[in-house]
C-alpha cells in the first residue's frame, strides 16, 4: 500500500501507516477486553446453572409498591412493576426539571440583585447546598423535615384544601374527567393565541407606532377566560378528610416530597452558579448600553442580558438536568419506589442482577439521551444567528 | 515519527497488564463442571479458602442476637457463630474470619460474584432462591416465622386492623413478598413503604411513618431492643409465613457446600451427643464408637471431605454445640430469653435433626 510512494519510506516509519495501525490496535484491545468480560460472565452464569435471558420479566412480581401512579396489582408481571417504577422516576424527574429551573434561575439572578440581603442569601444558599453530599441532604429532608409532620390523626389542615401529615401531602387536583381534558386543551389554545397576539402587538407598536391598546384589551379578555377555565373547568377535587384517611385530590407520599425537595434544592444551587456564570459572560457594555437607553435594572436583565446569557447557560443546564435524572436513583435510600428501587427488588427476587441492571442502565441512558437531544435543539435555537 | 513510535510503545505497555488480567479470569475461579465432589474433583471454593487461610463470611451485622458489631468491633450472634464454626473446622481458629456486612439486596450478588465464601445472614430458604437464583442452602439454623410489630397504644390487634395503614418493610426479603400474599388473601388494602436499609426502615417505623413493621419475628424482637422505648411495641399474635433461616453457598460446588452443611450438622449432632465445650475432653475418653467417630478419633469422616479429621471436635472446642450457641445469643443467657420452641432438638419435640455421622 505504501510501497508505491516515490520516497520509498519503509512501512514501519510511515506516518500514514501508523495512523491507521494504532486505531486498529486500540480497537482490537477494546474488543478483546469486551470478549473476555462476556466470556467470563457466561462462564460464571453457567457455573451457577442460570441462563441469560429476559423471559423472567413475564412472571408475576408478587410484591407491593407503595406509590402506584398507573394501576398495578401484585400478580402483575415484573415488567409492569418496572413500568410503575419508571413512571415514578419520571414523575420526580419531570417535576424536578420544572421546579429546579425556576428556583435555580431565581437564585442565579438574585446574586446580581442590588438588594444586599438578597445577594447574600443567594450566596449562602449556593455555598451551603453545593458542598454537602446529596444523600445527606435527602436524609435531612426526609427525617428532619417531613418526619416532623404530625401523624395522620391530627394532620395539619391548611385552609381546608391542603393537608400535611406523616402519610403525605394532599392537594387539590383536577379530576380525571373528559371535561378536564377539554378544558386543558382550551387552555393550551389560549396560551398559543396569547403568544401570537403579543408578537403581533409588539410588531404593530414597533413598525406602525400604534398604542397597542386594542390588543391589550383582547389579551386581558383571554386572560380572564383562562382564569375562569382554571377555576371551574378543571373540576378540581379537594381532598376530603375522613378522620383516619384522606380521600381524593392529589396524594403525594412524604417520600416523594422528600426526594423532590432534596433534588430540587440541590440541583438548583448548581443551576444558580451556571446562571451567574452565563450572566457574567455577557459583556459589560451591554448593561451600560441598555441603561443608557433608560431601562430599569430589572428590564435590562429581562430584555437585554438574560437572552444573551442563555447561550452560555443552556449547555451547563443540560448537564445539571442529566445529573438530576441520575441522582433521582437515590430515592431508594428514603423508600420511594422509583425504577431503581423496583429493579432492586426484582433482581433480588429473581436472582438475575445482570439482566436487571442492563435494563436500569438502558432506562437512565434513554431518559438522559432524550433530555440531551431536546436541550441541544434548544441550544441551537438560542445561539447567535450571524447574518 | 518518534511520536508514533512512542505511542505504539505506550499502547503495548498498556496492553500487557490487560492481557495479564485476561489470564486471571481463567484462574482458580473457573472450574469445569463439577461432578459429585469427592475424589478427582477440580478446584473448589474449599481450596481457595484453605489457601487464603481465612474465611470471608457475609453477615447482616445489625441484628442483635444474630450478627451484631459491638463498640470494640467484635462480632457476635448466632449467624456469626456459624461462620466461626466453619473457620474452626478448617483452621482450628474461630477468629480466622473476615466479616462483610451485606444488606438484603447485595447479599446474593456478593455471594455469586465470589466476594464472600458463604452467607450466614438469616436468609430464608425458598425453592426459587435454591433453584433459579442459583444458591445452595445449608441446613436451617433457625426456624422462624414472619410477624408484625405495632405500637401498643395503636389499638391494632390483628392484620385486619392494618387496613389503610402503612407498613414498613425491607426490600429484597421474603418478608416483602409474604406480606403482599397475606394481605391479598385477606383482601386488605395497605400502603407498603419499602426501604433498602433495615436501619432506615426501623427509623421510619420508630418515627411513626408506618403503623406496622414486618419482618421475621426473631428480628423484630432483636430490633425492638434497639428502639427508643422497647416496651411501647408489641408483636401481633400472628405468624404470616415459614422462615427457615440458614447459611448459603453457591450452586455447583459440592465440596464447599458439604463443608458448610456438615459443619452446621456437627453443631446439632454435638448437642444430641451432649458434647459441650466444657465436657469435650471427658467425652473423648468415653468408649462410645459413635462419639469417637464423630470427634475424629476413629474412622476418616473428616478426611474424606477434605477437612481435618477432628473437625467436629474443633468446632465444639471453639464455638460449642448448637444449644450453647442458642442460649448464648438468643436464649436463657441473652437479653432476649427466646424459648427454644421449634429450634429444640428433635428428641425434645423441636425440628433440629442431624443425619447420622457414619
TrEMBL record, chain A:
Organism superkingdom: Bacteria
InterPro entries on file: AA_ABC_transptr_permease_3TM, ArtM/GltK/GlnP/TcyL/YhdX-like, MetI-like, MetI-like_sf
Keyword tags: Amino-acid transport, Cell membrane, Membrane, Transmembrane, Transmembrane helix, Transport
Subcellular location: Cell membrane
Membrane-spanning segments: 20-39, 92-113, 134-153, 173-196, 216-236, 256-279, 356-375
GO process terms (BP): amino acid transport
GO terms assigned for molecular function: transmembrane transporter activity
Topology of the protein relative to the lipid bilayer: Multi-pass membrane protein
Membership in a protein family: Belongs to the binding-protein-dependent transport system permease family. HisMQ subfamily.
Protein name according to UniProt: Amino acid ABC transporter permease
UniProtKB/TrEMBL annotation, chain B:
Signal peptide region: 1-22
Source organism per UniProt: Desertifilum tharense IPPAS B-1220
Entry keyword set: Signal, Transport
GO biological process entries: amino acid transport
SMART domains xrefs: PBPb
Domain (Solute-binding protein family 3/N-terminal): residue spans on this chain: 54-283
Family membership: Belongs to the bacterial solute-binding protein 3 family.
Name of the protein: Amino acid ABC transporter substrate-binding protein
Amino acid at each position: 500500500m505504501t510501497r508505491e510512494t516515490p520516497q520509498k519510506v519503509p512501512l514501519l516509519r510511515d506516518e500514514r501507516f501508523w495512523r491507521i495501525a494504532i486505531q486498529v490496535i486500540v480497537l482490537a484491545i477494546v474488543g478483546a477486553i469486551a470478549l473476555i468480560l462476556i466470556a467470563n460472565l457466561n462462564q460464571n452464569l453457567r457455573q451457577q446453572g442460570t441462563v441469560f435471558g429476559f423471559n423472567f420479566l413475564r412472571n408475576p412480581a408478587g410484591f407491593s409498591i407503595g406509590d402506584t401512579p398507573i394501576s398495578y396489582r401484585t400478580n402483575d408481571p415484573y415488567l409492569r412493576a418496572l413500568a410503575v417504577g419508571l413512571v415514578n422516576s419520571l414523575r420526580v424527574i419531570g417535576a424536578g426539571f420544572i421546579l429546579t429551573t425556576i428556583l435555580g434561575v431565581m437564585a442565579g439572578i438574585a446574586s446580581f440583585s442590588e438588594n444586599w440581603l438578597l445577594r447574600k442569601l443567594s450566596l449562602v444558599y449556593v455555598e451551603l447546598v453545593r458542598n454537602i453530599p446529596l444523600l445527606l441532604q435527602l436524609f435531612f429532608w426526609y427525617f428532619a423535615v417531613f418526619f416532623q409532620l404530625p401523624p395522620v390523626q391530627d394532620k395539619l389542615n391548611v385552609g381546608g384544601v391542603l393537608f400535611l401529615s406523616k402519610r403525605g401531602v394532599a392537594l387539590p387536583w383536577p379530576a380525571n374527567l373528559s371535561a378536564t381534558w377539554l378544558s386543558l386543551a382550551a387552555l393550551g389554545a389560549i396560551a398559543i393565541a396569547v403568544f401570537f397576539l403579543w408578537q403581533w402587538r409588539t410588531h404593530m407598536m414597533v413598525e406602525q407606532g400604534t398604542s397597542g391598546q386594542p390588543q391589550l384589551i383582547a389579551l386581558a379578555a383571554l386572560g380572564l377566560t383562562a382564569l375562569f377555565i382554571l377555576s371551574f373547568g378543571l373540576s378540581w377535587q379537594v381532598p376530603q378528610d375522613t378522620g383516619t384517611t384522606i380521600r381524593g385530590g392529589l396524594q403525594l407520599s412524604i417520600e416523594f416530597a422528600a426526594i423532590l425537595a432534596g433534588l430540587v434544592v440541590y440541583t438548583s444551587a448548581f443551576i444558580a452558579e451556571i446562571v451567574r456564570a452565563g450572566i457574567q459572560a455577557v459583556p459589560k457594555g451591554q448593561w451600560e448600553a441598555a441603561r443608557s437607553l433608560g431601562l430599569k435594572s430589572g428590564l435590562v436583565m429581562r430584555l437585554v442580558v438574560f437572552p444573551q446569557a442563555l447561550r452560555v447557560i443552556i449547555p451547563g443546564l443540560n448537564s445539571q438536568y442529566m445529573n438530576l435524572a441520575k441522582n433521582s436513583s437515590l430515592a431508594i435510600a428514603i423508600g420511594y419506589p422509583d425504577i431503581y428501587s423496583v429493579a432492586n427488588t426484582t433482581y433480588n427476587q429473581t436472582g438475575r442482577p445482570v439482566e436487571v441492571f442492563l435494563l436500569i442502565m438502558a432506562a437512565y441512558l434513554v431518559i438522559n439521551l432524550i433530555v440531551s437531544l431536546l436541550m441541544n435543539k434548544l441550544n441551537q435555537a438560542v445561539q447567535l444567528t450571524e447574518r | 515519527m518518534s511520536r508514533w513510535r512512542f505511542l505504539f510503545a505506550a499502547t503495548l505497555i498498556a496492553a500487557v497488564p490487560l492481557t495479564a488480567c485476561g489470564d486471571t479470569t481463567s484462574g482458580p475461579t473457573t472450574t469445569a463442571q463439577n461432578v459429585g465432589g469427592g475424589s478427582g474433583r477440580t478446584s473448589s471454593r474449599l481450596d481457595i479458602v484453605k489457601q487464603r487461610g481465612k474465611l470471608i463470611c457475609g453477615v447482616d451485622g445489625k441484628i442483635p442476637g444474630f450478627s451484631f458489631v459491638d463498640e470494640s468491633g467484635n462480632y457476635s450472634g448466632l449467624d456469626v457463630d456459624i461462620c466461626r464454626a466453619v473457620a474452626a473446622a478448617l483452621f482450628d481458629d474461630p477468629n480466622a474470619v473476615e466479616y462483610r456486612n451485606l444488606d438484603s439486596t447485595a447479599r446474593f450478588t456478593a455471594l455469586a460474584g465470589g466476594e464472600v465464601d458463604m452467607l450466614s445472614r438469616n436468609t430464608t430458604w425458598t425453592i426459587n432462591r435454591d433453584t433459579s437464583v442459583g444458591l445452595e442452602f445449608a441446613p436451617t439454623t433457625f426456624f422462624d416465622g414472619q410477624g408484625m410489630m405495632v405500637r401498643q397504644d395503636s389499638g391494632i390487634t390483628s392484620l385486619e386492623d392494618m387496613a389503610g395503614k402503612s407498613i414498613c418493610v425491607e426490600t429484597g426479603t421474603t418478608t416483602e413478598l409474604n406480606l403482599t400474599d397475606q394481605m391479598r388473601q385477606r383482601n386488605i388494602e395497605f400502603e407498603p413503604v419499602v426501604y433498602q436499609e433495615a436501619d432506615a426502615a426501623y427509623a421510619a417505623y420508630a418515627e411513626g411513618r408506618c403503623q406496622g413493621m414486618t419482618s421475621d419475628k426473631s428480628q423484630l424482637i432483636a430490633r425492638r431492643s434497639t428502639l427508643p422505648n422497647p416496651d411501647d411495641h408489641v408483636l401481633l399474635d400472628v405468624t404470616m409465613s415459614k422462615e427457615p433461616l440458614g447459611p448459603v453457598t453457591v450452586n455447583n460446588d459440592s465440596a464447599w457446600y458439604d463443608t458448610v452443611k456438615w459443619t452446621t450438622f456437627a453443631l446439632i449432632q454435638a448437642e444430641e451427643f451432649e458434647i459441650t465445650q466444657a465436657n469435650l475432653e471427658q467425652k473423648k475418653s468415653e468408649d462410645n464408637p459413635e462419639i469417637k467417630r464423630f470427634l475424629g478419633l476413629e474412622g476418616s469422616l473428616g478426611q474424606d471431605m477434605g477437612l481435618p479429621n477432628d473437625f467436629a471436635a474443633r468446632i465444639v472446642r471453639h464455638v460449642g454445640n448448637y444449644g450453647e450457641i442458642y442460649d448464648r445469643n438468643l436464649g436463657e443467657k441473652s437479653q432476649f430469653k427466646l424459648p427454644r420452641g421449634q429450634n429444640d432438638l428433635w428428641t425434645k419435640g423441636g425440628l433440629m435433626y442431624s443425619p447420622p455421622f457414619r
